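Technical annex B. To support the medicinal chemistry partners, we prepared a structural model of the target in complex with S-adenosylmethionine, based solely on the information shown next.
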Amino acid sequence: NYRCRSAFKLLEIDKKHYILCQGHIVVDCGAAPGAWSQVAVQRVNSAGLDSNASVGFVVGVDLQRITPLDGAFFLSNADITDPATQDKIKDILPGGMADVILSDMAPNATGVRDLDHRKIVGMCLTLVDLAHSILRPGGTLLCKLWDGSESTVLRNKLVQCFSSVKTLKPQASRKESSETFYLA
Ligand code: SAM
C-alpha cells in the first residue's frame, strides 16, 4: 500500500529507465507523505529485506512532517534549498555521496501558472547545485517541473552537467497537467 498515488509515476519511470538499483544511495526531495520513498526503499533494498542483495540507503527531506518508514531516514520540517539542510544530508549519506537524487517537490501553487512555473524551476535549479556537491559521477537526477517559458533554462543547465537529459511525461500524471519530469 503506497501512501500516495504519486508512487505510480516513479514506478512507471523506473520501469522504463532503470533509475533505482539494489544498493543505491538515494535522496528523495519533497518526500512527504512518503510514497516515492516507499518505492525507493523497495528498489534499493534499504530495509535489507532481500538478504542476497546489497543494501541501499534512502534519505527523504520535506518541509512537512514525514511519517517514519523502515529503510528510510527522514529529515522533516527541512527546506532542501537551505544550505544547512544540504549539509545535514551530506553528513547523513554514507560516504557523503548519492547515486540518485529524486524530486517530486512542488511549491505551494498560487494558481498563477507562470509564477508557479518559475518557482518550481527555481527549486530544480537548486537541485542541480546540490547534485554538484553530493551526486556521484555517473549519478542520476530526476526532477519534476511544471512546463513553461523557463523550462529551457533548466534543461540547458542539466545538459551542461549531465551526459544525457530526457524529458518525460508519465501516463500516471494527469492528462491536463503541465507536469513534466527531467531525467538527467
Ligand atoms: N513524492 C511524494 C510522495 O510520493 O509521497 C509527494 C511529494 S508532494 C507532490 C510535494 C512535496 O514537496 C510537499 O510535501 C512539499 O512540502 C514539498 N516541498 C516543497 N518545497 C520544498 C522545499 N523547499 N524543501 C523540501 N520539501 C519541499
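Notes passed to the chemistry partners:
The chain has a mean pLDDT of 97.
The beta strands are 25-29, 57-61, 72-75, 98-103, 135-146, 166-168, 179-183.
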